[in-house]
Structures are given as C-alpha cells and as structure tokens.
Write a structure and sequence with these properties.
Layout (H helix, E strand, L loop, with lengths): L1 H24 L4 E4 L6 H8 L5 E4 L3 H15 L3 E5 L3 H4 L2 H9 L4 E7 L24 E5 L8 H12 L6 E6 L15 H4 L26 H7 L4 E5 L10 H9 L3 E3 L15 H4 L3 H7 L4 E5 L6 H9 L4 E6 L13 E4 L2 H5 L14 H18 L5 H11 L5 E4 L3 H9 L8 E3 L10 H12 L3 E6 H6 L4 H5 L5 E7 L14 H9 L7 H6 L4 E4 L2 H13 L3 E7 L4 H15 L1
Helix pairs in contact: 1-2, 1-6, 3-5, 3-17, 15-16, 15-22
Length: 572
C-alpha cells in the first residue's frame, strides 16, 4: 500500500512537471501561483522549474489580473496555478477581460478526481467549463500509467499552439499529493516513449503558425482611395506596429483620427483631439465631407467618434482587425479585412485623388491644444491637469496604465500633443474597475520599465489588497489615485435627480489612502496642488519600487471642467 501511495504522488508530480515543461516550449516565461493543497503536483513541479519566473500571491482574483498584465507586456502566454474550489472562480473577472482582448492566459487548476465531485467532498465544485465561453478547456484525467506521456503532451500541444485566448487546463489529482522525494527513475520505461523530445526544447507536437491575412487587392485599394477619406485608429497594441498608420496617413493624404488606446493619441502627426473637435462646428463641417473611412482596430472610447462613424452614410467603410470578430456596436455595413495593422499599412496604397483635403484639421487640432494649455494647464488644480502633466512628462521608455471610468476618458479627451508618448495600456475588454492595480503590477514587472498607473478612488478601493503585489515591484511603479470621493463619472450621466445620484450612484466614502499605503509599506504622498504633485511624481519616478500618490479633488471638479471645455470648443 505504501508503495502504491508513493507511486501515485510521484506520478502526479511527473504529470505536473511534463505540463510545465511543455508550457515553456510554447513560450511561457511567467508563472503566477497561489498556494493550495490540491494543486501540489503543479506547485512542486514549479518549484523545480528553472525556465519560469514565478510570481506568488495570496489572492487568486488579483493573481489573475497580475497574469493579464504580464501577458500584455510580454506579448506571450502566461500560466496561472490555483487550487480547487472558489480559488478557480476568483479568476473569472481576469479571464473575461483576457478573452475579450485576446490575451493568452493558461489556467492550471488543481481538482479532485471525478468520484469526489458532487458528493460533499471538501473544496470540490464543478470546475470543468467553469469559465463558459471565455476560455477553451482541456480536462485532463487523473494521472495514469496506462495513458502514455505522448498522449498528455500532444493533447497540450493541440490546445497551446496558436493560442490567442484563455485556456483552462483542469488537472484532477488523487491523493496522496506529497511525494517523500522527487524520484522519477521508476518511470524510465514510461518516459522512454517520448524519444527525442527529452533531448530538444521543441514541443512534442509541432504545429504550424496559423497567422494569416486577408487584405484588399490593388485595384480595390485604388477605387477605395478615390475621394475624401479619414483613417481611424482604435485599440492597437505595440505588436500591431501602429506607428505605420502615421506613414499611411501621409501617403494617402487623409487625416488620422486617434483613440486613447491606439498608442498614437499624443502623436503630432495625428488628430488626437478628435473627441473635442467633433464639438467644434468648423471641424465637424469639414469631417462631414469625408466619404470613405478606414478603421484600424476597435473598442473606441469616444462616444462622439462612435456616433460620427455610425451616423454618416459612408460611400466605403473598411475596417482592419487582427481577428475575425464584430467590433462595431453600431453594426455598420462595411468590408472587414483581416491581419496586422502594420502589415495592412505596408501594402502598396496609391495616393488619394483628394490628398490633404482636410489639412485644416491640423490647425484646428493645434488650436484645441492651445485651449487646453490655457484653460486646463493654466487653470484650476484638477484631474485633467494631473493627467496632462503625467502624459506630457513621459518618454517612449516608460509605460502608462490608465484606469477605467473617468481617468481613461479624461486622457482620451485632453491628453497633450507630444513626440515621445509612453506605451499605453488599458483594460477595456469588459471595462471593469476591478484588478487595475494588479494588472499594472504585471505590466511593470515584465521588464521593469518605469510605469505609472492612474486610477480613481473606487477602483483603488476595489483592488486595495493588490498593493501587496506592488510592494514586490523592483522598478518605479507610481500609483496615482485620483480621489474625488466616489464615482463621479455619474455627474456626467442623466440621472434624474441629485438625490438619486448621491444616494445610489456616486457613493461618497470619505476614505483616504495614506493608511492603506502604510499597511503595505509603500511610500505615500498627497497632493492638493500642481506644485506638490510634480514634486511627488518626480520623486516617485526615482524610487526603485512602487509608491502611491493621492490627488484629492472636489467631487464636481472634473465634470464641471469637462462641461466648460465643451462649451468653449463649441463656441470657437
């Protein structure tokens, strides 16, 4: 009986080791782990792995978002190990976000054997398929010598190859889980089936790269560019080479309208202030002359830009996406082309017959920037002023993570024009306010590039225990909390009465973040004017780790300023 038990624990560990080894051969560099007993075979295998950078955290919800940030920054799949039960369920928000934005996370969940599910066994829930349509699934049987290692590896390879969304690998492990020592000699005959796999670093089953593109032929491009058109840059990652859109804009002679998530929002060659320009009668009249539109990416932030695209009767509407999916809530009639944005830009586009038809937009864009300099930079201390100061001070070597709700909208509306903007990250798949600190920690940890996170007070409260992840950062991570005491984005929405807005939407809390930062041992500063903020921000960027800056502003400061700027730009 003892020999049998020992063999079970060691076979569990062997399967865990084979799984992690195969993950490394598919490009996994980071492994995020939360402690638990049922995942012990994976945990012990991870402890013996020297090809993976391990990240540990006590909270699976934050751990999932940490993995999301690591995957966004590394542009590679990231694995997560959890134990059984609600530990797996706590990953759900991060998996939803990863699924909607095509981020490859690999969940390895420890589970009980089939005979212990649904019978009152401890910490046992129905784990297979728990993520619904948000993750592919591979449900492994309990480790068994009758199932060859080549079966395990090839089943993994089939799922891991060309992975562009979350994959849930459920691993059922019988007890005992803890081997007395790591001894695989007894499995020499079993492993001999793997042949040369053990002498190489390639996956057992090599699957061809399935990347493909479907772009327009030359004659279609010639017809498309014959007229007045605009280019729109939606959400684009650095891997899609968005800078090539600048070259395409110059080649066609069409203006490039940019979203906050395009990596080009601040580029001087783009029309970055498009959200505000659509309020301006001169700019709107000019833009209404456009007959053709070429959209790269999707998930636009600006409702005004979304409406502009939806309301016009376009002669030709083309959209380029890296994946075949509907990214258009307006359901416009269009031609969808598939492929990487940079590759689409590199096609032999002819110059438009109406090149530079909207050159006046450049001057109007500059004029709006001057208004921002005068009324925001030179005006009262507030949220937009802080966001512009951060955006203006960044270099191309830095990273900026912008939180949901009001911060990302303020960046979209008011970010300054600049030549060296930081790499920009958001969580705009499901646009939740959860997990923002943890995701930013993942983005910062991959390469240790200086990173700034801007988020609201409710978002910070929601993810407060992820400050434990921030504490372990070894590079500058500046967490800027815009504390306007509640959810003041609701000031901009048509809630019927102020009483309803206050009691059921804004939810003032009266909390401050100094003691929260102290609990996690993080440097903390508080700013109530721009001079204090700049001093605190520069000091934080020089600190080799995470720090918190709390910006305290009135509840209605940002919403009132947004309304005033809109009135000003309408009247220009």
């Amino acid at each position: 009986m003892d020999h049998l038990h020992s063999s079970t624990a060691e076979l569990n560990l062997l399967w865990g080791s084979l799984i992690l080894e195969e993950l490394t051969r598919h490009g996994v560099m980071h492994l995020c782990m939360a402690p638990g007993s049922r995942s012990t075979p994976l945990t012990l295998a991870a402890a013996a792995q020297d090809k993976l950078t391990r990240h540990l955290h006590f909270d699976e919800r934050g751990l999932g978002f940490l993995a999301l940030g690591l995957a966004k920054a590394s542009k590679a799949p990231v694995a997560i190990i959890t134990t059984s039960g609600t530990a797996v369920a706590n990953l759900y928000p991060a998996i939803v976000e990863a699924s909607l934005t095509h981020v490859p996370l690999i969940i390895l969940s420890g589970d009980r054997p089939w005979e212990l599910i649904g019978c009152g066994a401890n910490q046992a829930i129905e784990q297979p398929g728990i993520f619904g349509g948000y993750a592919r699934q591979l449900n492994l049987p309990t480790p068994d010598l009758r199932i060859g290692p080549e079966v395990l590896l090839s089943a993994l390879d089939e799922q891991l190859a060309n992975l562009d969304r979350p994959l849930h690998i459920n691993c059922m492990y019988p007890e005992p889980l803890y081997p007395s020592e790591r001894r695989f000699e007894q499995f020499d005959s079993y492993l001999s089936r793997l042949g040369q796999w053990q002498d190489t670093q390639a996956p057992y089953l090599s699957v061809a790269n399935a990347s493909f593109s479907a772009f327009p032929p030359r004659d279609a491009m010639m017809r498309f560019v014959h007229g007045k058109g605009v280019i729109v840059a939606g959400t684009l990652t650095e891997a899609e080479a968005p800078i090539e859109l600048i070259t395409l804009s110059q080649k066609l002679g069409w203006p490039l309208l940019t979203d906050a998530q395009s990596q080009l929002r601040q580029h001087p060659g783009a029309i970055g202030h498009i959200d505000q320009l659509l309020l301006n009668p001169k700019a709107r009249a000019l833009l209404d002359q456009a007959e053709r539109v070429l959209v790269f990416g999707g998930r636009l932030l600006s409702k005004r830009l979304i409406s502009y695209l939806a309301e016009k009767d376009w002669h030709s509407y083309w959209q380029v996406l890296p994946h075949q999916e509907r990214l258009d809530p307006s359901h416009s009639n269009k031609q969808l082309w598939l492929g990487r944005a940079g590759d689409a830009c590199a096609l032999e586009w002819p110059r438009s017959s109406e090149a530079n038809w909207a050159a006046q937009l450049i001057a109007l864009n500059q004029s709006v920037e001057q208004d921002f300099i005068h009324h925001i930079d030179g005006g009262e201390f507030g949220e937009a002023q802080v966001i512009r100061a951060i955006a203006a001070s960044h270099t191309a070597e830095q990273q900026l993570f912008i939180g949901n709700s009001l911060p990302v909208r303020l960046y979209d509306m008011f970010a300054p024009i600049g030549c060296c903007a930081a790499s920009t990250y958001t969580n705009r798949g499901a646009s939740g306010i959860d997990g923002l600190i943890a995701t930013a920690c993942g983005v910062a940890r991959h390469r240790g590039r200086p990173t700034t996170l801007i988020l609201g007070d409710l978002s910070a409260l929601h993810d407060l225990n992820s400050l434990a992840l921030a504490r372990d950062c070894q590079s500058p991570l500046v967490i800027v909390v815009l504390n306007n005491d509640g959810g003041n984005i609701f000031n901009l929405l048509p809630v019927p009465t102020e009483e309803l807005r206050s009691d059921f939407y804004r939810l003032s809390h009266g909390l401050e973040f100094g003691y929260g930062a102290a609990m996690f041992g993080l440097p903390y500063d508080r700013a109530e004017d721009m001079e204090a903020f700049i001093d605190a921000y520069q000091a934080a960027l020089e600190h080799p780790g995470a720090s918190v800056i709390e910006v305290t502003v009135a509840q209605d400061q940002a919403s009132n300023q947004i309304r005033r700027m809109a009135e000003w730009i309408r009247s220009r």
